[in-house]
Amino acid sequence: MSEPFRPAGEGVRTRLFQIIFESDTPLAKGFDIVLIAVILVSVLVVMLDSVAAWHAAYGELFYWLEWGFTIVFTIELALRIYVLDKPLRYLRSFYGIVDVIAVLPTWLMLLFPGTQTLVIVRLLRVLRIFRVLRLMRFVGESRLLLDALRRSVRQIFLFFFGIFMLVIIFATVMYTIESPEDGFTSIPMSIYWAIVSLTTVGYGDIVPMTSIGKAITVMLMLIGYSIIAVPTGVFSAEVIRSIRADRYSDQACPGCGHDRHEKRARYCLKCGTWLDEETPDPNRASEKG
Amino acid sequence: MSEPFRPAGEGVRTRLFQIIFESDTPLAKGFDIVLIAVILVSVLVVMLDSVAAWHAAYGELFYWLEWGFTIVFTIELALRIYVLDKPLRYLRSFYGIVDVIAVLPTWLMLLFPGTQTLVIVRLLRVLRIFRVLRLMRFVGESRLLLDALRRSVRQIFLFFFGIFMLVIIFATVMYTIESPEDGFTSIPMSIYWAIVSLTTVGYGDIVPMTSIGKAITVMLMLIGYSIIAVPTGVFSAEVIRSIRADRYSDQACPGCGHDRHEKRARYCLKCGTWLDEETPDPNRASEKG
Amino acid sequence: MSEPFRPAGEGVRTRLFQIIFESDTPLAKGFDIVLIAVILVSVLVVMLDSVAAWHAAYGELFYWLEWGFTIVFTIELALRIYVLDKPLRYLRSFYGIVDVIAVLPTWLMLLFPGTQTLVIVRLLRVLRIFRVLRLMRFVGESRLLLDALRRSVRQIFLFFFGIFMLVIIFATVMYTIESPEDGFTSIPMSIYWAIVSLTTVGYGDIVPMTSIGKAITVMLMLIGYSIIAVPTGVFSAEVIRSIRADRYSDQACPGCGHDRHEKRARYCLKCGTWLDEETPDPNRASEKG
Amino acid sequence: MSEPFRPAGEGVRTRLFQIIFESDTPLAKGFDIVLIAVILVSVLVVMLDSVAAWHAAYGELFYWLEWGFTIVFTIELALRIYVLDKPLRYLRSFYGIVDVIAVLPTWLMLLFPGTQTLVIVRLLRVLRIFRVLRLMRFVGESRLLLDALRRSVRQIFLFFFGIFMLVIIFATVMYTIESPEDGFTSIPMSIYWAIVSLTTVGYGDIVPMTSIGKAITVMLMLIGYSIIAVPTGVFSAEVIRSIRADRYSDQACPGCGHDRHEKRARYCLKCGTWLDEETPDPNRASEKG
């Protein structure tokens, strides 16, 4: 994650910036780890508070814990705004919005008593989980995965487009064949059924009742069962390509500047220049001799 | 998609042809995009109209929208026929048939009042979705996927043949073991159950009741769970082959015989020899001069 | 399929042998295709006859059709025995047993009236489907698949052994936690549930009821969902290896007899002998000069 | 499995050590096989004893069989302790703990009558199955699999982290939308539902009832259906890498620099140069002589 909001000044702000936004120093790493732990615990508290039995037993504790988390996150947010030179740009970025959402519900509760009971408030609080995405900074492997995903995205789009058409056709056919009493009340409902079947989830809340409907379902299930090979195959191929791309060096050719050679290449594949600048070119040597 | 129906003439017809059938000019691209949007909206309207609540609230609106789409598609179809030299060949092609089906149901409704209520009419209207396949023109990646599919088709056929035999045997055994009261009323019904289980869909509308039936089901589920590796493995291997075939030429270096160069290579990466034997090496040329 | 039962004689027997057991001549191919069609139709008849409504309507027709198939298969079996020199070896082979089972039930019915009503008879008749395996002769691709399967079999065995242990542990834990009223009546029943869950079939006939049971189920489902990557990965790798094995020629080295060289190899990797016997070895040539 | 507990002495203890802990001699192999068989049978007995009907019929037999197994395992454990120099280190190792657990429940039953009826006792007995892991010694292939798993573990962790976030967000949204009467009683319960849906298990015990809930479910199911490509792709790539790393050396040919030889290659497949620089080329040697 690049942070384009570095403070120009020095002293306390700069040091705070390094702790909060970077992760090179032990202090900064410690800050990150504590923050992630607090976020996870705060999400856990929201989740447990939604269980009736837990709410009855520990509702008050959860209430005060929530206030504790909110105050911690608010101080953290204030510090983030303080150390940045362009805090508005930060607040409009993805992480900025998530950081604000993390504290908003509890403060709103103070302004508008009664909102506490709204379930939507819980939803907003759970969005805090996105703050953990900062963790990705630590994990270099994500680059390889994202690389492979990016390169397979167009083929995966094609795959979903094909599924989309399959599902519409199968759903309409089943809507025509099966009776509304058995759950096929409309085409959108049939589409729900078709996706439940194609993805092999198979809840069983809507199932075909007629023989012809069962025969069509068999086709849909076999398609869903085997078509999964397509995104898997495409993605496997791209991961293999990504791993292999490690075989390429970034070294630019001193002759033409071409910068994608296999690591074992000795001559530039574009202009034939000898790539290893530290040893002489055996071809030229023999020409001289 | 090749369009073998080009008009021989010039002027308005040729220009209309370029707009409707091709997609190189901005106008032609705009036409394609508008058309796809109209098709998707018209399919959406058919789907929403099948929901009782929506039909009650907006049935009349949907009725007139449907007439609007039909008139637009009819004008478009008329233009297509007008600009082509061999309109009959077009009407017998896949896209021609789909284009006619896209407008037929509504016009039939005018001729035979009362057909509106037939669900089959809805099915015909949804087939319009196939018109969107023209979109594929834009997506070059589909070639790679189709290539890999074509090469794995015989092995996937073998896979389905194996599944077919497995399912028949398991279904007959279960029909022999389980009682008809639990849903195993006939061998075809058992086959439906076997495919629901093998594909890991598992609706749960028919489940084994006896201990021996459960033991056999366990085997079937484990087979279904692991056998999916077969089409996935075959297709992955073919995608990898397609990607690689795209990148490397088989041409051997005239200098050292190294025979695995990227297609874009102009010099051998092993010995620096100029690979294109038909044109002179610019390096050597400049040396001479 | 090798047929080690060739007749030593000539004339009619040999010609019949070629038609029945081989598939090089047009007549032999036609025989194979007709036979496969008859087998498939006969299996279809058994399946349809098990449907109450079809049995009521066409029971008699199916009865006489069954006699027709049995007579055809009996004549075919008699011919097979006639043309072979070692018919007993044939009758003890897999295909021999299947061929006998294909005709046995109907003849037994004649001897013991009343067996017709036994469902087991139907099961025996359906086993005819195995006769279609002779079709595999036509499909060269099966070799590649079987090759890859054979090489991954030990790792797939390891995978199943791991699943087996996982399932036993999870099943026993769930049997301890959940109550028998909810379906977890015994450890074998829990194993059935665990496999239904791990393979992602999910019938829903037995589901966890307690919170702790649901938490454990979540773990089991996530394991089942992701562990499928293991056989898929192993098999994909083996298919890729099989395809690549096509890159190897069978040509033996004239020097040392080593017979597995990459097709592009020019020197034996074992003894350094020049492999292309039609052109001179450039190394030796330069030595002479 | 390395056994760092070898006895220093000789004679009977050393010979017993070789039989019990190693598997090179026929006697040691026989011991292993008999032991594995006894373990499997003892686990089977525990499982069958949990079935009410079997317990009623054979409960007493199972009781005495259990005592038999316990005595056999106790003698075996005593021998293991006897032959080792550092038995305490063994008893604190994974296999030592499992070995103790294998005999503990039955002896405890003697001390505290009535524990027999506790289901937890059964659980402890089933843990004996872990003893079979010693079998892994025989299977060399496990190294390759574990290698590939180890290298993909960080990416699989990333994958599970992504799933974890997806599930929390979807579960909270559905908890907000759906009513508690339909099973979405709390966020943890919604998480259970979300994992049942994402992993495509689909029990059907909790299903969405509202239209908007069904639409969100459709998204979740499609994500679950296609995202499985990620661990599969990563693991496939790693298995392929493991297999390949097994076959090719990185050593470059001293003659032409070709750097991709099979490990068993002794001469360069491009230029015929002797690859092993430490020993003389037998061909050249014979030429000199």
UniProtKB/TrEMBL annotation, chains A, B, C, D:
Protein name: Ion transporter
Highest taxon above the source species: Bacteria
All copies of domain Ion transport, residue ranges: 30-236
Subcellular location: Membrane
Membrane topology value: Multi-pass membrane protein
Main location: membrane
Sorted UniProt keywords: Ion channel, Ion transport, Membrane, Potassium, Potassium channel, Potassium transport, Transmembrane, Transmembrane helix, Transport
InterPro entries registered for this protein in UniProt: Ion_trans_dom, VG_K_chnl
Keyword Ribonucleoprotein part of the UniProt annotation: no
Residue ranges crossing the lipid bilayer per the database entry: 33-55, 61-82, 156-177, 215-237
One Pfam entry name: Ion_trans
Entry keyword annotation includes Membrane: yes
